[in-house]
Amino acid sequence: MALNPKAAGKGDSECAETGEPLSEGGEADKKSAATSATANQNGDQPGCRDGVMPEQEATERRRSVLADGRGSSSSPLSASRSSEELPRKNFQIPRKTRERKGLYQFLPPESREFEDLVKLISSFYLDASSRGTFSYCKARLIHNELLEKEFIEKRREMKQEGRAEQELAESYCFLFPDKSKLQWICEKGLSVGHCRITTLGNPSVGVYLSKYSDLLQINPFEVGSFGDMIIFKVMRGRIKHIHENMPKNAIESSPKFDCHLSKSANRVTSLLSYRAFELTQQYFFEFAFDEIKARPRHVCPYAVVSFQYKGKEVAASPMTAHRFNTISPEGSRGTFYIYSIFPVPVINLFFLFSTTTVVNLNIP
Any stretches that span the bilayer, and where are they (predicted)? Predict the structure, then answer.
């Protein structure tokens, strides 16, 4: 019995709509399977020849496409690729910090570090009356990694040699250098030959530093003088005391010692004492086997402070009034004032005015 072509076409169309295979005969099933295989090879969904996709299958297909897209976006390959595209800025942070730090660390006048530095300076005054005669307006700490490492290394070597704790104790000394040499000293350290003092040793093989912060030069400061003072962190190590009357050409750096001090330093009690500046100096040197190092490692620049000398209260006062009781020509007693910048004895004033006019002084 021949098949009706219209019935076959109707059966295919009903299969596409309902999705149920034909129950009669095996040819329809074979054709359906062949059609499905051909559709799979072409990348189409199995269905009828008219290409109409059921709504449920279209919805499922869209869901699968979205799922595939989300899976591909969250794959490890895409994550690693996105991480590689991010800028790597973490490696530049330490470098920027070092550049910002620099050689100097400026201390604001209202900071606690500034106050501690001023207290440190005032604790090294020789004369107690120096308090109030200096004003400090600018301070900065020195950060020199090379010199600080050498200072620590020198201390470690001295400790390994069995030095006493007193020899390893840290202290401070001071220097009032030329303005042109300040930057060089802060960067390279204090080298031998920076001065001409010969009291404690040859200046070409050692360095001189001031023990007191108010005694920075041979001559006293004039009122209004200003400049920059370098504070050094030092270790005196093993000290050798030198007589002041020893011939200058015979004083040489002593092996197994680190510092020379004058035996007469304790006799200096005033800024105006005889040779006060020279006798209170401290002389540092360092031996390297049989040679002298050009820069002692136990002397390290610590801070720079700008100062101005205001002078004593008597010198700072503009005028001082001296009162004298006088007798007028009419015989009445009056008051006579003489103003002078500096205190002058009464007897000197009498001779000063006796050449021009007669002044009768009523001196009891």
Answer: 336-361
Report the candidate in 358, 230, 203 with the shortest Cα–Cα distance to residue 292: 203
Q: Where are the alpha helices (DSSP H) in the chain?
A: 5-18, 27-42, 55-73, 76-85, 93-101, 112-122, 145-160, 165-168, 182-188, 276-279, 313-316, 346-354
Domain residues for the domain of 322 are 318-354
353 has a pLDDT exceeding 70 = no
Same domain, 153 and 296: yes
The total domain count for the chain is 2
User: Does residue 19 belong to any structural domain of this protein?
Assistant: no
Inside any domain, residue 309: yes
Each residue's pLDDT tens digit, 123-175: 999 999 999 999 999 999 999 999 999 999 999 999 999 999 999 999 999 99
Give pTM, 2 decimals.
0.60
